[in-house]
Amino acid sequence: MPSLSRRHFFGAAAGMAAIAAAPRLAFAQAPAAAPAAAPAPAGPFAVPPLAYPFNALEPHIDAKTMEIHHDKHHGAYVANLNTIAKANPQLGTSAIPDVLGNLNALNDDIKFAVRNNLGGHANHTMFWEIMAPGGGKPEGEVLAAIDKDLGGLEKFQTDFNAAGGRQFGSGWVFVTVAKDGKLAIETRPNQDNPIMDGKRALLGNDVWEHAYYLNYQNRRADYLKAWWNTVNWSKVAERYAAAKAGTLGV
Ligand SMILES: [Fe+2]
Asked: What is the CATH number of domain 140-245?
């Protein structure tokens, strides 16, 4: 796989710095309209649209947090991936689990950026999917697995919240699912994803401050508790079946 050159990265950064530092001579003559945002780099990656409005998860997650989180934070990971994919087109045509599961196959100059940005893309794609207004409760095979492997729903949610609270700094708390359907609570730093360790995320909660700070500030524990009201258990059941069938994507 060809790699993104340092010149490409630093050239782009220098260009942006030059624009920011340019004297605003044109401003006096320009109309009052706000300047248009620079278009995101086009490419093979896109932020998946939400299946519900930004305010659908209130009061547990506020609309502004959802909008910034989905459009700006996830948008930035996607924009970065499209920039990397310009010089590394295979990135855009490979299955995401194949790339995340074999990061060491990447050239050193893009490995770190792909780990962070493709991990972020995978994590957030899962995250939007496993939430929905109205919440619900686990049933059927998923509930049976929670009972068997995680000590029942109440203990599971308590342990999951505790693990999310212990994650130092930014990261995720996941329920991983093995091919035999066995569940486990695991955390990852930054935008790492269980696929990087040959596992799969059944569900996960984002404990980066950007996921909750507008509404909860430093009260991560309150966010972790409230978040359960947003979990789309029917989608989690679909993911569980897919994981056991070996067809779960991200
Ligand atoms: Fe996030």
From this structure: 3.55.40.20
Summarised one tens digit per residue, pLDDT across range 83-130 is 999 999 999 999 999 999 999 999 999 999 999 999 999 999 999 999
Let me know: does 60 contact 226? Beta carbons within 8 Å. yes
Nearest to 205 by CA among 219, 186, 218: 186
* Kind and range of the H or E run holding 177: strand 171-177
Is 70 exceeded by the pLDDT of residue 73? yes
Cα-to-centroid distance, 142 and ligand 1 (Å): 25
Contact 159, 192 (CB under 8 A): no
Give me the residue label for tokens 């700006």.
Answer: 72
Output the CA–CA distances (angstroms, integers) from residue 38 to 8, 34, 105, in the order listed.
Answer: 18, 12, 33
The separation between the first and the last C-alpha atoms of the chain, rounded to the nearest angstrom, is: 22
The Å distance, Cα 153 to ligand 1 centre, comes to: 25
Domain extents for the chain? 140-245
How far does the centroid of ligand 1 lie from the alpha carbon of residue 226, in Å? 16
pTM of the model: 0.84
How many CB atoms within 10 Å of residue 73?
18
